[in-house]
Structures are given as C-alpha cells and as structure tokens.
Amino acid sequence: MRSEKRLTLWELNRLVREAIEDEMPSEYWVEAELSECRESRGHCYMELIQKDERTATPVAKASAKCWASKWLVIRPYFERTTGQRLSAGMKVLLRVYPQFHEAFGFSWIVTDIDPTYTLGDMARKRQEIIRQLKEEGVFDLQKELQLPLFCQDIAVISSATAAGYGDFCKQLTENPYGFKFRTQLFPAVMQGEGVEQSIIAALERIYLWKEEREKRKENSFDCVVIIRGGGATSDMSGFDTLALAENVANFPIPTITGIGHDRDESILDMVSHTCVKTPTAAAALLISHLKEVLDTLNDSQDRIARIAIQKLSTLNSQLSTLQSALPRLFSVVKARQEARIDALFNRMLSDIQQKIVGCKSRVEGTGQRIPLLIDRRLTAERHRLQLIEEKARSLDPALLLQRGYSITLKDGKAVRDPQALRQGDEIETRLEKGTIKSIIK
Q1: From 69, 110, 177, 439, which residue has the greatest number of CB atoms within 10 Å?
Q2: Which pLDDT score, from 0 to 100, does residue 265 have?
Q3: Would 335 be classed as within a structural domain?
Q4: What is the C-alpha to C-alpha distance for residues 185 and 158, in angstroms, rounded to an integer?
Q5: In the chain, which stretches have pLDDT less than 70?
Q6: Is this structure's pTM higher than 0.70?
C-alpha cells in the first residue's frame, strides 16, 4: 500500500475539478427553492433546496453563486419583472454551470434567472391564498363595512419616518375645505421580512385602543389607513401573505390601503375596504368622502329651505282663502248649529213630556195597588202574631203546674241543681194552688 502513488488534497481536488469540467462543460436550467439568499460585495450567494412534494422533506441541497458582473444585470430585471426581491422560500429557475475550486469546493455558478417561472409560482401561491380566503368566507368582509359619514378619527399604520406618512398627514392638514382630521400613528415595518408580523401587531394595538376608548364611552377610530411610500416595488411580498390578509379581512373597522405600487393589486389590497395607489391618494379619498358628505348636507339644507318656503307659500294662500271665506262659513255654521240646537230642544221637550206621562201612569198604578198591598200585609202580620201567641201560651209555666209539676225557687230563680243549695237557705216551692216556703236543714 505504501508503494501506491499518494496525492495531496489539492491534487485530488484538481482531478475532481478537471473531471467535472470535462464531463459537464454545458450550462443547465435547474428548478429549485431558495432556502437562503444574501448579497456580499456585489455578489449573490444562494442555498438551493428541493423538497419531497408529499412530506416537504429536503431531498437535495446545493450552494450557488452569482458573480457581481452578472448579478448587477440579473437582479434589476428580475425585480422589475416580478416586483419581488429574491428571498428565502421563493421558487426559481436558474441557468447554471458547475464549478469546483480546490480551496472552496463545489458550487453552481448562476448566469441567468428566468423571472417568468417565479411569477408563475407567485401567481399560484396568490391564487391559493385567495381561494382559501374565499372558502373561509372572509374575502369580502371589509367590503360590507361602511365608512362613517364623518370619517375624521383615523388610525394610521406606517413607518414613522416614511415620506409617504408625512405627505399623508400634510395633505389632510392642508385640505382646501378646512376639514379637521385626527390621526394616530401605529408604527410598523413596511418593507422587508418583518412586514407581516409588524402590521398584524399594529392592528392588535389598534383593536385594544378601540376597546379601551369604547369602555370610556369615547369616540373610537372611524377607519384604519395602511400606507407606505418610497419603498422599492421589490418589497411587496410582505403584503401577499395569508395571515396578514386574514387579519385585515376580519378587522371590524374599515381599512384603506395605499402602499405605493403600480403593479397588480396585492392580496392586502384585495381584502381591504378600499384600495388606492399612494398615501396621498388615501388622504385625497378621505377628504373627498367628507366633501361629499358636506355637499349632501348643503344640498339637503337647500332642499329643506325650498320645501319650507313652498309649504309656507301654500299655507299662506290657504289662509287667505279661508280668511275671505270665514264670514260666509261662519253664517252657514251658525245657521246649522242654531237649527241643531232647536231640534235638540224640541226633542228634549218631547222626551220630558213622555217621561212625565210614563211616571204619572206608574204613580197612578202604584196608588191603586197600595190599599190591596196594605191589606195583604196586615193579614199576614195578624197570622204571624197568632202563631207567636200560641207558642207563648204553650211555654207558660202555669200549664206545667196544672199538670202536677212544681217549681222550686231561690231568690226568685229556679233551682236546677240541689248541689247549689246550702244549709239554712230559704227556698220557695210553687204549686198549682199555692206556694210552700222551706229552709234547708
């Protein structure tokens, strides 16, 4: 084994490089997903990955590089076409050739990127998010809300230092109609990877603020405005996420978006109550809305005034007609009332006469019946007295004495119980033919 030729690592790596260059001299189009993408000194360094479609388990990995000379051309074209920056999770179609370096190992060198492939994948993802939102029944929830007539208390989600936020506030303050708007900023990251979570956190703060104000019975926010100005069109991916769309769609306050881009609407725009292109357009929308309300109020005021004038004119005309017809109408009414009173008086006299005749007839009939009634009553009372007299006679004590009974008295009261008598008491015994007095021994 010691007799075999030995190679240094550099020599072995050079053999590998030569083998790869000899066997794979062409360039290849490869589909892959970016697991990492970063720039350094003008070059772009990528980590490529392929996942199993069923389990999402990585089945292949590789490193790739795009040198600055190519990257300075590829990047602007890709971002201009897709409206997105290359970022982790994005699917790409790359034109590459293999390179093996004795010191740095193997990597794929990127010479071109097809943005249409990424656009197709982005469109597929967008359609999947839209489909899911519609299945959940939340896609059009914001459209069902109505902006309050006097939409002046506004919660703003934006970067505090963004020029678009300053333009938005300036346009509201300097509106030509003198409308007063009250804005409250809820700062959020509006570009880069933190867009989704930052805006969701701002929405949560707005909701808590709203609940607190309602508990104190104070006016809450009339709408939420999400604005972004001055950012690159390649920073729009954060506005095309399911979580952010669900939060905005379910938010109970009308939400207006003005995130400053000219390409197709983001999903955030689609689910919002109203979508405009720029922060200044959002301010113009709010001013226009309040101006329409003011115009409606002015028109209503003018219409009410016209109707009131017309009504007064009609009433004055009717009053003049009534005034001229009043004497004649009074004479007619007076004659009718006098005739009515005469008729009522005559009818009252007739009713009184009939009443008197009826009462007189009843009095006469009663007078005829009184002697008969008195006689009947006297006969009945005599009969009742006879019965009472007979009953009293039957209860007379003399009748008992005649039948051989006696009555013993003490102090004029009948003695019913001998135990009530004491020695020395004087008693009196009444008989039919006399009285006997005795003393108890």
Answers
A1: 110
A2: 73
A3: no
A4: 7
A5: 1-3, 230-236, 260-264
A6: no
